[in-house]
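All the exercises in this workshop are built on plain-text protein records. The record below serves as our worked example for the rest of this section.
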Amino acid sequence: MLEPVEEGFEFLSSDWPLHFTIDGGFTYDHPLQELIDSIEKVAITTKPFYIAAQNEEDWSTDYGSVKVVLLKPIPVLMKFHQEVLETTLRGGANYMNPEHEGAGYIPHCTIQKHIRLKPGERRLVDNITIIDMFPADDAYRRKVVKVFKLDKN
């Protein structure tokens, strides 16, 4: 997340805190603690880094148009994506849109109602957050499951 959030924080699917997508949505059929443990291993070995906003785009989705700001695909960001992807896949993750992962990954930050990145803006990435996309089977809510600080050592 690019805005501070606490574990357990819930929000509407239409009102996300400012964030960028490191990996898309997936299902996970194993115990949640296994996912937490595997992501923590990536987090503690990744140093904080800066992302840089580039240009805006309108993306068409199954749910309508979404405005995003593309992020410069710097090596540290792309490596972070790949490490999280490989970690989740080893644990049995099934990605909802696998074509947008790996070679198809386009780093971006969705423009929110209350906040956004402006082209040219830089932000520090110092955490990775696990989000439950359907807490209590509610497709209109989201819940922060775990926040990991990068490079805890």
Q: What stands out?
A: The first helix runs from residue 32 to 44. The domain at 10-149 is CATH 3.90.1140.10 (Cyclic Phosphodiesterase; Chain: A,).
